[in-house]
From TrEMBL:
Belongs to the GST superfamily. Residues 2-92 form the GST N-terminal domain. It holds the Pfam family GST_N_2. This is GST N-terminal domain-containing protein. It comes from Aureobasidium uvarum. The lineage of its organism: Eukaryota, Fungi, Dikarya, Ascomycota, Pezizomycotina. InterPro entries: Glutathione-S-Trfase_C_sf (IPR036282), Glutathione_S-Trfase_N (IPR004045), Thioredoxin-like_sf (IPR036249).
Amino acid sequence: MSSTLVVHHLRVSQSESIVWLCEELGIDYKLVCHDRDQQTLLAPDAYKGLSPLKTAPVIEDVDTYTPNHDHIRLAESQACIEWICRKHGQGRLLNKPWDPNWKEWLFCAYPNILRYLKEIGERPAYQKAFEKGETTLKPMLDANPKSIYNF
């Protein structure tokens, strides 16, 4: 049976986590890749038209839970993760508050800038943005997420 799930992957974006999730679950899906504009590094207009948010990730699927099997389109990482894990993964990779590693799962499941600060801090555009915003990046780069989340 072929999958109804379509993952619109905007290269170099949050949608990488959705592709990774589908592979981790071992589910069938159709991958549609979108390249950023070489000059501006922005998403192409075709991708921006997929969601009113104009952001990655975006998935499309058939809602087999509705009588008419409506076509749905979802944006936002956590919405996509929940949909895919519940519908296609039979709840695998989802944790409950009473599970022993729930706190760690939350940290991994939800996008968190602290995980990416070292990489972000090395990009000239982000360095300029932090300078313009008069934000010092060093304390955040030196932060240990384990001490922040106490695990």
